[in-house]
C-alpha cells in the first residue's frame, strides 16, 4: 500500500490537533528556506507544539542516516541506512560552473537482472518510500547544497516503484523542494505503463531509455525485461511520449566491448531511430563507456576507444543526436550498487 509522505502526515497531524494552517507553512519555511532539520530548532513554533511533533515524528525531519561518505574531486557518494537495516546510495556531482546534480536510488537492490549491472546482482530488497527518495535530496539541501538537477538513476528501476510519482510530486511542489520538472530525469529499462504515466502526469520530466542493444533478441539476453516489454513496443510508447510532450527522449547506450559496439549495432541504432516520429530528431543518444571495475553478473572487457569513436561517427553522420558521456566520477566509481557491494563485503569480513 502506498504510504503518505511525511509532509502530508505532518499537515494532517496539525489539523487533527486543531493547529492553524500557518503552522505548516512555518515548518515548510523552516526546512526549505531556513534549512532547519530539528523540530526543536523551529523556534517560531510554540514549545508545546515542537514537543508534540517530536513525540509523533521523532527529533528530525530527515529520516535517513549517512553511513559512509566517499569524496573525490567532483563527486560525493553517500551510503545511507534506511529502515530494516537496508542501505541505499546517492551520488552528488559538482560541475565546474557550480552546477550540482544528484543521482538518487528508487529501490534497494533490483530484481530485473540486467547482466552488466551491479545492482541487479544484489536482487531486490524492497522499493523505497517517497520519503526515502526525497530524503536523499533533503540531506544535501540541509547541508547547504544547491539542488540543480536530479536523476533517478541510482539503485533500482524507477518506474517499477509507484512511489516515484509521489516523490516527483514532493520534489516539484512549490512549497517544498520547488524544483522545475525539467530539472528531473527518470531513467527506465522500458516499463511501458510507467512511461505512459510519465507522459500523462509529468510530461516535462526528462526521460531516459536504457537501450543497450538495438536487436530485440540480444536485448532480451542482456536485459530480461525485454521479454515482457519488447523493444519495438517500448519505442512506439516513446514515440507517443514525444508526440504528446514535444520533449526530447534520451537513449542510454552502454558500450559493452565485443557485445554491442560493432558497426552493425550502430547501423541498427540509426535504422531504429530514423524510422521514428520526425525521423528520430527528438531522440538523443548518450554513449556510456562500460566501467570494467564494476562487479556485474557478466564480465566485459576494457572499452575499445576506437570502437567508441566509430560508433559515435556512424550515428553522427546519419544525423542522429549523439554524445559520448565522459568518465566523470570514474575514480569513485559512480555506478549504482558498487558502494553497497563494498560495504557488505567489509561488513562480512
Ligand atoms: Fe535494475 Fe537498472 Fe540494474 Fe537493470 S540496470 S538490474 S533495471 S538497476
Task: Set down the secondary structure blueprint.
Layout: H1 6-16, H2 22-33, H3 47-57, E1 65-71, E2 75-82, E3 86-94, E4 100-103, E5 107-110, H4 118-122, E6 123-127, H5 130-142, E7 149-152, H6 163-172, E8 184-188, H7 192-201, E9 206-210, H8 216-222, H9 225-228, H10 231-245, E10 249-255, H11 263-274, E11 283-289, H12 305-317, E12 321-324, H13 338-347
Parallel strand pairs: 4-7, 7-8, 8-9, 9-10, 10-11, 11-12
Antiparallel strand pairs: 1-2, 2-3, 3-4, 5-6
Helix pairs in contact: 5-6, 7-10, 11-12
The structure holds iron/sulfur cluster.
Iron/sulfur cluster binds at residues 110, 112-114, 117, 119-120, 156-157, 189, 336.
Write a compact overview of the structure shown.
Helices cover 38% and strands 20% of the residues. It is α/β, with parallel strands linked by helices and 349 residues long.
How would you characterize this protein structure?
The protein has 349 residues and is of the alpha/beta class. It folds into 2 domains: 6-57, DNA polymerase, domain 1, CATH 1.10.150; 65-348, TIM Barrel, CATH 3.20.20. Helix content is 38%, strand content 20%. It has 13 helices and 12 strands. The chain has helices at residues 6-16, 22-33, 47-57, 118-122, 130-142, 163-172, 192-201, 216-222, 225-228, 231-245, 263-274, 305-317, 338-347; strands at 65-71, 75-82, 86-94, 100-103, 107-110, 123-127, 149-152, 184-188, 206-210, 249-255, 283-289, 321-324. A 10-stranded mixed sheet has the order 1-2-3-4-7-8-9-10-11-12. Strands 5-6 form a two-stranded antiparallel sheet. Residues 328-338 have low confidence and may be disordered. The structure holds iron/sulfur cluster (SF4). Iron/sulfur cluster binds at residues 110, 112-114, 117, 119-120, 156-157, 189, 336. Residues 110, 112-114, 117, 119-120, 156-157, 189, 336 line the site of iron/sulfur cluster (SF4).
